[in-house]
Write a structure and sequence with these properties.
Elements lengths: L2 E7 L15 H17 L3 H6 L2 E2 L2 E8 L8 E10 L4 E9 L5 E9 L2 E2 L4 E2 L5 H10 L1
Antiparallel strand pairs: 1-4, 2-7, 3-6, 4-5, 5-6, 7-8
Length: 135
Amino acid sequence: MVSTEITLTAQFYDLDPMGVVWHGNYARFLEQVRCQLLDNIGYNYAEMQASGYIWPIVDMQMKFIRPIRFHQKFVISATILESANRLKIEYIIRDHASGEVLTKATTTQVAVEVSTNELCLESPTALTDKLKDLS
């Protein structure tokens, strides 16, 4: 499995009026670790588009277990679960100090050919070849 992780710190601008990270900011956190993961495999968004495909997110699931609070450090891991017909990534957000799981999430992306705007039923070799190289 291909995975990576990053460490972030909750900033004041991430909070809602109740003093915890606003739920809408979690998508941004997932994007940050997803971009790192894609960079690591050599197939980031610019490389996707250059290969003739875009990869929109078609599904995002999130389970909030514990809130993230101001100035709390947390670690987000991202792991590719599926890549044959879609790009499914699992995320786990943990407290940096204790390792306690705070949030679990998944995103699903599908390949769309730029020239035809058609959905691909299989992941293009532009992705699968990159993943084979890492095996």
